Amino acid sequence: MKKIVILASGGTISGSGLTALDFKDYKTGSYTIEDITRSVPQLADLAEITVEQLFNISSCDITSEHWIFIKQRVEHYLIERGYDGAVITHGTNTLEESAYFLNLTLATDKPVVFVGSQRPLDVLGSDAGINLHRAVRVAVDEQSRGKGVLIVLNDEINAAREGTKTNTYRLQTFQSGQMGLLGYVDIDGTVQYYREPVRKHTIHSRFSQVPLQALPEVAIVYSYLGAKGDVIRYLTESKRYQGIVVAGTGAGKVSSDEELALAEASRQGIFVVRSSRVGNGRVTALNQYQGYGFVTADNLLPQKARILLMLALLETNQKDAIQQFFHEY
């Protein structure tokens, strides 16, 4: 029987409702991972389970320091202790960001699965237990090896790069846009894959070999009709940020005032990445922005472009090299 470690970080999956019908005002961090696994005794039929409570907080409070700690614990179990896979319980609000960070930095190709729930553990119709069971089922499946970090909720398997939360409360919240799911845990309990990621990840990622202690500060600015460049100017003048990701309209476009502010930020040595708020489609180089030194995010969502830029800045301060990372990851 395979050995799987479940590393717990908190979130709704650890939450307790005020009543059996409390789906919104519940308290996260009410249950430990020992409590959660006791509620799913069927896990013992899938694997030899070890659990560790890393912390027990809302995913809104997770920081890059938490990311590095999670990475260290995953590698401790999978590389140093020889476990076969890892499952990480996490709040769904920022789950995709933590998953993508590990997708870029883990030095193992063993299965690593992020899981959360949309309803707390103790309410009527909770998805917590079945999601955890499905995540472990994916982690023990040999097909899951080498596919990068995975996200499993609602019987669906998403890649960390594309998977994103698309609904505030519905159970079928995680989707991968036009790229589609990797597969399912189907009705008969089997894992069925239909595609696999082609962008670099885990052991094929340059960032899996980079010592991580602290990450550069990168901000996201959301563009909209009539947007001014004031926020961008503030970020530039603060001297705190090494990068700015702009969630542009359409194909990564910004207002004229934002364009001026971003150009000045770039002149002052801040790396600017153009992404799109649309949710699907690539952002490519445009003649309008030639000469500014902006990087384009390909089809990465703004919050994931931020993570890739943070890691890229640990490696280089050359615009062309950073752009190449966005082509490859």
From TrEMBL:
- Give the record's keywords alphabetically: Hydrolase
User: Pfam families this protein is in?
Assistant: Asparaginase, Asparaginase_C
Cited CDD domains: L-asparaginase_II
Highest taxon listed in the record's lineage: Bacteria
GO terms (BP aspect): asparagine metabolic process
**Where exactly are the transmembrane stretches of this chain?**
none
- The L-asparaginase N-terminal domain extends over 3-198
A single Gene Ontology MF term assigned here is: asparaginase activity
Q: Which residues form the Asparaginase/glutaminase C-terminal domain?
A: 218-326
Keyword Hydrolase assigned? yes
Q: Note the InterPro entries from the entry.
A: AsnASE_II, Asp/glu_Ase-like_sf, Asparaginase/glutaminase-like, Asparaginase_C, L-asparaginase_C, L-asparaginase_N, L-asparaginase_N_sf
Q: Indicate the residues that form the catalytic site.
A: T12 (o-isoaspartyl threonine intermediate)
The Swiss-Prot or TrEMBL record describes its family as follows: Belongs to the asparaginase 1 family.
PANTHER family listed in its UniProt record:
60 KDA LYSOPHOSPHOLIPASE, L-ASPARAGINASE
- Tell me the protein's name: Asparaginase
Organism in which the protein naturally occurs: Brevibacillus composti
